Each structure stands twice: as structure tokens, then as C-alpha cells.
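Before relying on records like the one below, remember that each one covers exactly one chain. Contacts with other chains, cofactors or solvent are not represented anywhere in the record.
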Amino acid sequence: MTSGSLVFSVRIPLAWGEMDAFGHVNNVAYFRWLETARMHYLRAIGITHPDEQNGLGLLLAESRCTFLKPLHFPDTITVRMGVVKVGYTSFVMQYEVHSEAHGLSATAESVQVMFDYRTNTKAPVPDAVRAAIVQLQAATPTT
């Protein structure tokens, strides 16, 4: 993972309800945090609900997370992320989850596929979305 590509970040306070019976944050919470960060990034590059874009939207094709450290309430995490590869119909995002208390706590990756909900088929990544990704990825990383 290239930290220089992680140009977008979202801070999220841990919720007590994210803890599990073992006394640490349940792994499912990490995927919700990744989703929250991903949705903010997608809005920033102009991808909204398919109803607002003539049926064009995204499908999450793959998501994986490597858990490095257990987290506990109270804490605040920052999800740092960015797009590391753009293909014809898809793009790859990478993430780091940083805990204020424990530092780097997880790394993750997801693959998003552009999808035409009207025809129920994959679609090319629009030029405007490609340009927005390039512009956002060229920005100074936020923390």
C-alpha cells in the first residue's frame, strides 16, 4: 500500500455498541467504517445514487480487511483512503484505519464496479469520474 495514494480521510468515534462479547470492537464495524469513508469519497468524485445518474451506479465487488490491532471503546479512528487503480469498468480503493490510541490498526482494499442498473450490466467508468479521481488523488492528503 502506498500511503501517498491515501489522500482522503474520515474521522469516526467508536460506539459502545461496536464492542463484542470479547471486549473489543467487532470486525463487522471495520467494514462499516470503510463503507462510510467510501461513500464520502464517492460523493466527492460525483458518484451518487443511480436514480440521480440515469441508472449508473456502483457495485461493491470485493472488500477485504487485515486486522492488525484490537480496538476498544472509547477511541476515535481515522480511515485514510484513496483510489490506487482505475480499470475500464472498475477501480480499486485502499484504506488504512488509524486509532488515536493504537495507531495503524487495519489495512483494507475494495473493488468497485460501475454498473448500469437500467440494463443490469457493467458499464465503463465515465470520463468525468476518471477526471475527478485524478483531481482528488492529486490533492494534498487530508488528516
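The longest helix spans residues 27-44.
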